[in-house]
Amino acid sequence: GMIYGLIAPGYEMAEVVAQNLIETDTKEFAPFDMSTKLKLIGVDVASFGDPFCDNTPYDSVVYQHKAKGVYKRINVSPDGKTILGGILVGEAAAYNMLLQMTLNKVPVQGDAETLIMPAGQGASHGSGVEFLPDTAMICSCENVSKKTLVEAVQAGNTEIGQIKSCCKAGTGCGGCVPIVKDIIDHTLKGMGVTLKKTICEHFAHSRQELFHQIKVKNIRTFTQAIAELGTGHGCELCKPTVSSILASLHNDKVLKEETVLDTNDRYLANIQRGGTYSVVPRIAGGEITPEKLIVIGEVGKKYNLYTKITGGQRIDLLGAKLNDLPEIWEELIAAGFETGQAYGKSVRTVKSCVGSTWCRFGVQDSVKFAIDIENRYKGLRSPHKLKFAVSGCTRECAEAQSKDIGIIATEKGWALYVCGNGGTTPQHATLFATDLDTKTCIQYIDRILAFYIRTAEPLQRTAPWLNKLEGGIEYLREVIIDDSLGLNAELEGLIENQVRTYHCEWTDVVNDPAKRAKFKQFVNIDHSESTLEWVAERGQRVPAPW
Question: Which of 25, 75, 147, 213 has the fewest CB atoms within 10 Å, measured from its CB?
Answer without folding.
Answer: 25
